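Table 4 source record.
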Amino acid sequence: MSRIGRKPIPLPQGVKFDVKGNTVVVQGPKGTVKTHLPSGVKLQTADGHINVTRENDDRAAVHGLVRALVNNAVEGVTKGWTRELEIVGIGYRAGS
């Protein structure tokens, strides 16, 4: 079984998720994120966590992938995404 896919995804306060067909919609204070849900993988809520389960071992390849995508969506609607750039060299100008 996938080690990553087995880990539950914590669902923070104020974050809602909904499965509509093969799309997962995650809503939170920073916006809404939609991601694709492949067939053979299901999301279930238990004790404030989201658990990813698969129907059979043929779907093992996407089990961990779905867990990572949904976890990134939950993080994105709560914390947001940032990227820090480091400029190395002489002669570059950067404004803030």
